[in-house]
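Figure-free illustration: sequence to structure, shown twice.
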Amino acid sequence: MVAADTNASAAPAADLPKSENRVWKKFRSHKSAMLGGILVVFFIGIALLAPILPIPDPAATDWGAVRKAPSAAHWMGTDEIGRDVLSRMIWGAQASLLAGVISVGIAVAVGVPLGILAGYFGGWTDAVISRCTEALLAAPFLILAIALAAFLGPSLTNAMIAIGISATPLFIRLTRGQVINIKVEDYVDSARAIGLPTRLILSRYILPNVLPPILVQATLTIATAIIAEASLSFLGLGQQPPAPSWGSMLNTAKNFLNQAPWMALWPGISIFLVVLGFNLLGDGLRDALDPREH
């Protein structure tokens, strides 16, 4: 019996590398997902390298180069007070990506445990969590984020908190649905039958099986969070001047569309590309992690 149990427990470990290889092979064959991954890595790279890149200070003004068109001196032109647009674009990537990742991290950290509690225990626990989730879902995501950011006050930190709270219901609902399906599986019933504590059942059997869809949803939600951060900054509720942000750059550029269209062009393209990258990456992860596709 001991030998049989040892072999049974070793079997999943032996299959794990094969499963990982299948996932990677499926993801690698997904051309649009690879394109998305390249875009995401590119923007993350320039955001991380911003402090060491040979670019001007994003807050440095040059009154002799106000609203200058792209040139050898300023590859993306200058803004309304002579600041280098390329430098502000690179530093602005930090704010957008940071807002996307941290706000989604907040949503996952709060939403996943609540979703597990609601789905696994049911009863009044599920009723209370589900009613609160439905109340938050009654308000459109961006409207709720704007309201919370206005209540908390204009700053990048408060914007991330507002976006994170607004995105939390998505992860509660997703996690709850996954847990409801998983908790009736035979291996979970067997764990209960041998008297395994609830905390171990949740950590060993429930959580690992809900992580793949959560990972996909998190990747897709980062794209939504980046748009939300740009919207809040555009409205003056996110990153505050003179710190660069793509949203605040668009807000300023709207006043100079005829005289200096490049001021709006570059942040608009950047938002489009980074959001496209995360969406393509999320779609690829969803296909690669779907067991029905293997």
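We now fold a second protein in the same way, so the two outputs can be compared directly.
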Amino acid sequence: MNDIEIRHIEQIDRAAVMAILTGAFHFDPLLRWIYADDSEYARHFEGFVYAYGGDPFERNSGLIYQDAKGCAIVWQFEGLSSHNDKILPYLKRYRYAV
């Protein structure tokens, strides 16, 4: 059986994890309604993640990266608030006028 590494990510993993998440949500109906064009989606998805939930790399935690399968999981620890107050201004600025 192959060993599978599951660990807290670090800043150096940012590009790889964001690539995984960008691919995972490529066909998400809500995000593709907001960003119907592939180039707009690719350009703005990472900013959408930050506007919606804050920086997932904060404190080198909040993400687990399983590099044997190319998987990433995002969550917020108890006590951290979401950044929902930033999502509407972000959407107004980048693509969708709410």
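Summary for the second example: The beta strands are 6-8, 63-66, 71-74.
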